[in-house]
Amino acid sequence: MKYVDEFRDGTTARAMAEAIRAEAATDREYRLMEFCGGHTHAIFRYGIQDLMPANLRFVHGPGCPVCVLPAGRIEAAIRLAENEDITLCTYADLMRVPAGKQDSLFKAKARGADIRMIYSATDALGIAQANPDRQVVFFAIGFETTTPPTAAVLKIARALELPNFSVYCNHVQTPPAMAHILDAGETQIDGILGPSHVSTVIGSRAYAGCCKQYKTPIVIAGFEPLDVLASTLMLLRQINAGRHAVENQYTRVVSETGNQKAQALMHEVFEQRPLFEWRGLGSLPNSAVQIRDANAAFDAEKRFAMQESEIDEVRGCICPAVLRGVSSPVECKLFATACTPEDPKGACMVSSEGACAAYYSYGRRLAA
Amino acid sequence: MCLAVPARVVSLDTPADMAVVELDGIRKEVSTVLLDEVRIGDYVLLHVGFALETIDTDEAEKTLAMFARMRADA
């Protein structure tokens, strides 16, 4: 595949790893946080950690939307889907995430609830148009990458005056979460591999405040292994020079200002949500979006008076600490014993972007 | 969730903001509503049925040229 295969070349990867080993000082530690689950998986799948000098560690960040969604919001969606006239549509990633009492959307579907996995937000719109007698709710999650498509379908629904379509909005924002982790200072972070496709939408300048305030180098990195390696080298050079700037390695799709058409669409449909609960990070102000009042008719939370419930974390699950980069998945007692991708106890094991799933698939030997 | 793949535009339905893209022999109809401008032959970054951005081929070549230099220097 063009623009994929060239960025996975093994010979180049080994040359880059050599350059990284040459750049790394031997008298210090380097702790680099990859914010996105996509990067976590690239690092494990392609064995990038193994190519690094022993004093360079990747710390895994919270950039997995399924992982940071509190169980209470999934529970609220399950309760909604149990109503006979509701069809709930969502991306496949969410289906097996544990809600309260070992429940999940998948189990609710097995009990007879009309819950459908969709590929695109437009599929939910199509289902609403094809089933005028049913209330179709799109359970929308994701960072800024996935928010513009939700905005686009909501706008179409409004133009069509579709009476049976609404959105359960769970879209969250990257820069506030990044700032929170740096502000909390629970774990040493010398530099950040910045998001790939979130940055395509919001632009590299969106991280300038974070970089400046916490004096932390940030390099926007593509998701392919050579992108990750090149960005790691760029971070090391900044750290060694005592600099902190936002640099962009992923120039083929990320600009300084981002996709302004997508930003305008998001702004038209959504507004800042004053407070949003993140699994692991707690309630963060101005860290998520909600549907504007002008579009309230399409807001499932308002239409169905949805209530979020408090749900305790599964006993023993250390997902919250993993999401903050404080603990490694292999430190969890449930890891690869009670908690596996087939029978996940925590969200980080469910999602194909979760850190626990990455360790389970590619890095179980690290537990030894 | 944020994963996206590069796909080539093979036809356009500009009034509908739709395009047909091809990826490894598979064709799919996607929305181009998030793009200002798109042409047949462009590579776009595809995410949940939407073209998120056009791939800047000059920038891609610059990155690959930098990789080639690192390979040569090793």
In angstroms, what is the radius of gyration of chain A? 21 Å
Count of DSSP helices of chain A? 17
Number of strands of chain B: 5
Q: Write down the overall geometry of chain A.
A: globular
DSSP strand tally of chain A: 11
- Individual helix count of chain B: 1
The CA-CA distance between the termini of chain B, in Å, is: 35 Å
Side-by-side strand order of the widest sheet of chain B: 3-2-1-4-5
If interface size is counted as residues with C-beta under 8 Å from the partner's C-beta, which chains form the largest one?
A: A-B, 54 and 37 residues
- First-last Cα distance of chain A: 37 Å
User: Structurally, how many domains make up the residues of chain B?
Assistant: 1
- The largest sheet of chain A has its strands arranged as 2-1-7-8-9
Do you know the CATH architecture of chain B? Answer: Roll
What sequence of helices (H) and strands (E) makes up the elements of chain A?
HEHHEHHEHEHEHEHEHHEHEHEEHHHH
Question: What does it look like?
Answer:
The complex is a heterodimer of chains A (368) and B (74). Chain A is an alpha/beta fold and 368 residues long. Chain A has a domain at 319-360. Chain A is built from 17 helices and eleven strands. Chain A has helices spanning 10-23, 37-45, 48-51, 65-68, 71-81, 105-110, 121-130, 147-160, 174-184, 197-202, 208-213, 225-241, 260-269, 300-303, 319-323, 347-350, 355-362, and strands at residues 30-36, 56-63, 86-91, 115-118, 135-142, 165-171, 191-194, 218-220, 246-248, 270-278, 282-291. In chain A, helix 8 (147-160) packs across helix 13. The radius of gyration of chain A is 21 Å and the shape is globular. Chain A starts with 9 loop residues before the first helix and ends in a 6-residue tail after the last helix. With 74 residues, chain B is an alpha+beta fold. Chain B has one domain (5-73): SH3 type barrels, CATH 2.30.30.140. Helix content of chain B is 23%, strand content 42%. Chain B is built from one helix and five strands; from the N terminus they run E-E-E-E-E-H. Chain B has one helix at 57-73, and strands at 5-13, 18-23, 26-31, 43-47, 50-54. In chain B, strands 3-2-1-4-5 form a five-stranded antiparallel sheet, with no helix packed on it. In chain B, a hairpin with a 2-residue loop joins strand 4 (43-47) and strand 5 (50-54). The longest helix of chain B has 17 residues, at 57-73. Chain B is elongated.
